[in-house]
Amino acid sequence: MPAADTTTLEIRALWDEEARVWVATSDDVPGLATEADTLEVLLEKLKAIIPELLALNRGFTDLIIPFHLVSERTEIARVS
Length: 80
Description:
Layout: E1 9-16, E2 21-25, E3 33-36, H1 39-58, E4 67-72
Parallel strand pairs: 1-4
Antiparallel strand pairs: 1-2, 2-3
């Protein structure tokens, strides 16, 4: 089985205002789609899910897989 290269994976997290959760996806990790109430909880989920998906989809066997989490949230500031 091939080992993962040292490329850092990019994971995107977008805030879903309606559902009130962070949703993570990535072109680098086939099948990745997960959500969590906070970025901290999302990070912990990603640490478990990313290696599982890469092992299933690409046969990676590395125990260390670097990833970069890019989060985006749009808010509105109001003047009272």
